[in-house]
Task: structure prediction
Amino acid sequence: MAKAIVVYYSRSGNTREMADMIAKAMNDAGLKTECKSVDKVKADDLPTYDAIVIGSPTYYGQMASPIKAIIDDLVSRHGTLNGKVGGAFSSAANIGGGNETTLMGIIEAMLIAGMIVQGDPQGDHYGPVSIGKPDERVGQQCIRRGQRIAELTKKIASEQPNSRNKY
Ligand SMILES: Cc1cc2nc3c(=O)[nH]c(=O)nc-3n(C[C@H](O)[C@H](O)[C@H](O)COP(=O)(O)O)c2cc1C
Result:
């Protein structure tokens, strides 16, 4: 059965709140999903999941260093995330503060790893973003994104159960 993980870094709780909402939506949509702070996750764990969703506060327009560190740790396992579903989310302090550049940094790494990242034509296009503490709009975006990732992951896992890790 397909399973997923939401991995996040959060100092003051904003990104963690988003992670909790996304993971709940994924579980509610029928995809078994764990939600863990990045310090509780090893790069070795990641290839065991069918979907990996990564959240970071925006630091200087980029992902925070603990998130970059686990991505960099994947290099010795390069190729093992090929065909898995990815997603990203971020929290920043300011509109125009770099949320979307942070998302693109995470998504670029996912694409290099061979992962599948679905955009959203109606919701937050690259992934849910929050300015400070998540408000109702952010909550709706987190639920929407969690549902979409769960649906895509279940579909891919059921159609290609043996080919996810092949080049
Ligand atoms: C080192 C550092 C760098 C930051 N850089 C930015 C930034 O470039 N743009 C921005 O809007 N907010 C920036 N912030 C603010 C955080 O992104 C924001 O407070 C976020 O909501 C924190 O998420 P958290 O509660 O999950 O820790 C920065 C905060 C820190 C500590």
In short: The CA atoms of residues 26 and 147 lie 6 Å apart.
